Amino acid sequence: AHLDRIAAVDPQVNAFLHVDAETTLAQARRVDERLAAGEELGPLAGVPIAHKDVFTTTDMPTTAGSKILEGWRPPYDATVTRRLREAGLVILGKTNLDEFAMGSSTENSAYGVTRNPWDLSRIPGGSSGGSSAAVAAYEAPLSTGTDTGGSIRQPAAVTGIVGMKPTYGGSSRYGLIAFASSLDTPGPFARTVLDAALLHEAFSGHDALDSTSIDAAVPRVAEAAREGDVAGLRIGVVKEFGGDGYQPGVLARFRETVELLESLGAKVVEVSCPSFTTALPAYYLIAPSECSSNLARFDAMRYGLRVGDDGTRSAEEVMALTRAQGFGPEVKRRIILGTYALSSGYYDAYYGQAQKVRTLIARDFEAAFHQVDVLVSPTTPTTAFPIGERADDPMAMYLADLCTIPTNLAGNAAISVPCGLADEDGLPVGLQIMAPVLGDDRCYRVGAAVER
Ligand code: GLN
């Protein structure tokens, strides 16, 4: 049914970069055989899923939305992919994204834009916009994404679905094509909070193949989603997120949702996190710095595209030609920015300074979580914007992640859940719920209360 749905709507939505019915159906038959043989596969056995095309898959290509990886076949599965296969989920295909996950609209993909199923003239968010659109358009019941600065929560918000950024290190980065390694976090998309929690549990937990993986029990997120009880819970409204630059319809739905939580017995207070206003500039030094280092591996020798290798050119020339043609403009902007920020003589002024700001943000969270159990804010300042509106204005594009970035810099958990439609345009609004490191269950508990 999902393959039929993809065939019917994906020519308009363009959520998928790769769909292969034969491979999908073969996987489904294999799950049937395992179940028939009496294997215990868990609650999601047989459920179809779409993977963001940054997770490696041995039976499907992996492009990261870039020309430079065109034609590359990964020799191994990402841990997220492998664990979900083992749990019996069936892969429908690979979804579109901003090249190397750099963007907030999926317009930076080398393979065309993805459209928001609510309004095809608008963006589905990004960078995991293919994954959010696929779930919102009923092409897939579940999908995976990655969140480096907001790339799960912001697309979830603007397509009216649930998207979770787990605690950093709670989900494995092994086999995830790296953008900014100290921030990248795999997470689930679903149409309900409980579905997201079940998917979260199915791929999370310690992985010896990722040196930053946390060796601790996975928070009991499905249980929290089933309970959804917020009586007595202390909820902090982040004072710095709201006001100028926020769409009135987003703020109206946000305020109503906070009142709803209060009526369910939560204690609501305002909390100030002054360093959060400096998160965006700090992120745009740290993320490009790490990307400039990570993307050095695309040297025209190891993966995918190779341009101009006709026997007359040196390895350096082939590398330069390949990178010039293989990377898009946003990726090049970030590599240049990051190389500059890391260069000797500037390191302390830019990267070093940004790392200090990062510590201040983590301290703001720490102080806040002494007062409250969770923090809430709108997920993103506006609803889905029109395709093309911010394409030539990187600063305007970067502002889509104003409210999500502090969580990435501090490494804690946060979810976006739908909280109604904005009056101005009838488009979905997301509530962001932020919890401490390994407090992922609190995100699901509050999210489930809002959903009911
Ligand atoms: N939009 C942010 C960026 O462009 C975040 C992307 C992400 O989370 N992958 O870097």
From TrEMBL:
Its EC number is 6.3.5.7. Residues 1-443 form the Amidase domain. Signal peptide: none annotated. InterPro entries: Amidase (IPR000120), Amidase_CS (IPR020556), Amidase_dom (IPR023631), AS_sf (IPR036928), GatA (IPR004412). The active site is at residues 52, 127, 151. It catalyses: L-glutamyl-tRNA(Gln) + L-glutamine + ATP + H2O = L-glutaminyl-tRNA(Gln) + L-glutamate + ADP + phosphate + H(+). The keyword Cytoplasm does not apply. PROSITE patterns: AMIDASES. It comes from the Bacteria. GO terms for molecular function: ATP binding; glutaminyl-tRNA synthase (glutamine-hydrolyzing) activity; transferase activity. Keywords: ATP-binding, Ligase, Nucleotide-binding, Protein biosynthesis, Transferase. It is an enzyme of class 6 (ligase). GO terms for cellular component: glutamyl-tRNA(Gln) amidotransferase complex. One of its GO terms (biological process) is translation. Allows the formation of correctly charged Gln-tRNA(Gln) through the transamidation of misacylated Glu-tRNA(Gln) in organisms which lack glutaminyl-tRNA synthetase. The reaction takes place in the presence of glutamine and ATP through an activated gamma-phospho-Glu-tRNA(Gln). HAMAP family: GatA. Belongs to the amidase family. GatA subfamily. Heterotrimer of A, B and C subunits. This is Glutamyl-tRNA(Gln) amidotransferase subunit A.
